[in-house]
Specification:
With 388 residues, the protein is α+β, with helices and mostly antiparallel strands. The protein is built from eleven helices and ten strands. A hairpin with a 2-residue loop joins strand 2 and strand 3. Helix 4 packs across helix 7, helix 7 packs antiparallel against helix 8 and helix 9 runs antiparallel to helix 11. Bound molecules: coenzyme a persulfide (COS).
């Protein structure tokens, strides 16, 4: 098979091989059942922990492997070829861990990251609320100082791995009248007084991942659980999302690739009008567009991931592009895959039905694709203003 040479290092090739193997042996055989039963993939999380994959993005001094965005993208791309509900559960722990990694004190990193790296504890990221989705600065959950404690009140909605994770990075308002500058980030632990979980959501796709409400009812946490400075919470959330979004793009690439693989296999063996349907130009052109857009998406994700790892500080626009394009590609490609498989594609007997249901979330979570376009558009406006 002719492949683009992305000049991966030996270590990166090993990550691809390892995650590919886990996908084939552990994820693909159970994905339909996990989806049907809406079952949290604990067994697979244990396999990923055993393979040291939770350690990928964490620095060595905190028990990690010291990998970067590129390594993370390579891993999730391969896992996403199997099931993006499983992959999202894995990736959400990195999303939850980034605020600690980026803004935690050395003590906080020592306390939390080794268990996260070992896969003993999952982390969840809590920003979204019922009335604050795209408008992330509109959160209403509050945190008030009370002696040696912070007291949290309010709810967070649609939190990935809610109830299953042990550690939660939460953004709450400490100064309501200051808007985005009035938010602060905190670490909350499962079992903290006044912290409980709401109902598990029923979803169109991504059904093996747990999506729940977090409820803070006079939740008291020690003062030293603040992340960064008071008022820095919105920036922490934005920087976290900037770092995580290329990973969502990589999940889109993996999912789209899996849908293309199924489509080519099917088109080669499905006979209509006396010949395999791949011999019809209508099908060939669809497959050609699918393959070309996937390769373009992959190249973009890898290029942005490498730019981030090379130390670029100002990457919000690039990161938004690396989320936007591949996830739109994933929606289009999985929809076309169902079309190529026709009636069979619409049935649960083939995996493309789940792939199309799952793909939709990629255009919504970690910032809708409309928000990504806003981020890109606003960055362009600023950049060209600077150039005069
Ligand atoms: N990195 C660092 N700082 C950032 C930033 C970033 N990526 N994005 C914004 N900021 C800063 C701005 O510079 C501004 O700082 P000053 O007050 O010092 O000027 C402040 O944060 C507020 O920025 P802005 O006015 O652009 O905020 P908005 O309320 O307009 O919101 C969007 C900006 C829409 C981009 C933001 O709310 C967003 O990303 N929404 C989507 C949220 C999301 O992804 N949710 C998914 C759920 S989490 S899985």
């Amino acid at each position: 098979m002719s492949k683009v040479n992305y000049f991966l290092t030996e270590e990166q090739e090993m990550i691809v091989d390892l995650t590919r193997q886990i996908t084939e042996e552990k994820i693909i055989p159970v994905r339909a059942e996990l989806d049907r039963n809406e079952e949290f993939p604990w067994d697979i999380m244990k396999d990923l922990a055993q393979a040291d994959l939770f350690a990928l993005y964490i620095p060595e001094e905190y028990g990690g492997l010291g990998g970067g965005t590129m390594e993370n993208c390579l891993a999730v791309e391969q896992l996403a070829r199997g099931c993006i509900a499983v992959t999202t559960t894995f990736a959400a722990s990195a999303l939850g861990g980034y605020p600690i990694l980026l803004f935690g004190t050395d003590e906080q990193k020592q306390k939390y990251l080794p268990d996260v790296a070992a896969g003993k504890k999952l982390v969840a990221f809590g920003l979204t609320e019922a009335n604050a989705g795209s408008d992330a600065a509109g959160i209403q959950c509050t945190a008030v100082e009370d002696g040696d404690y912070w007291v949290l009140n309010g709810t967070k909605q649609w939190i990935t791995s809610g109830g299953e994770a042990e550690i939660y990075t939460i953004i709450a308002m400490t100064d309501r009248n200051k808007g985005a500058r009035g938010a602060t980030a905190f670490i909350v632990e499962k079992g903290d007084e006044g912290f409980s979980f709401g109902k598990k959501e029923k979803k169109m796709g991504l059904r093996a991942s747990s999506t729940r409400e977090l409820v803070f009812n006079d939740c008291r946490i020690p003062k030293d659980r603040i992340l960064g400075r008071r008022g820095q919470g919105f920036i922490i959330a934005m920087r976290t999302l900037d770092l995580a979004r290329p990973g969502i793009g990589a999940i889109g690439v993996g999912l789209a690739q899996a849908a293309l693989d199924e489509s080519v296999k099917y088109a080669r063996q499905r006979v209509q009008f006396g010949q395999p349907i791949i011999s019809f130009q209508a099908i060939q052109h669809m497959l050609a567009d699918m393959a070309t857009s996937i390769e373009a998406a992959r190249a973009l994700v890898y290029a942005v991931a490498r730019t981030i790892d090379a130390g670029e500080k100002n990457f919000s626009k690039l990161s938004a592009m690396a989320k936007l394009f591949p996830t739109d590609v994933a929606m289009k490609v999985t929809t076309d895959a169902v079309q190529i498989l026709g009636g069979y594609g619409y049935m649960q007997d083939y995996p493309v039905e789940k792939m199309m249901r799952d793909a939709k979330i990629l255009q919504i979570y970690e910032g809708t694709n409309q928000i990504q376009r806003n981020v890109i558009g606003q960055a362009l406006n600023k950049e060209y203003a600077k150039e005069g």
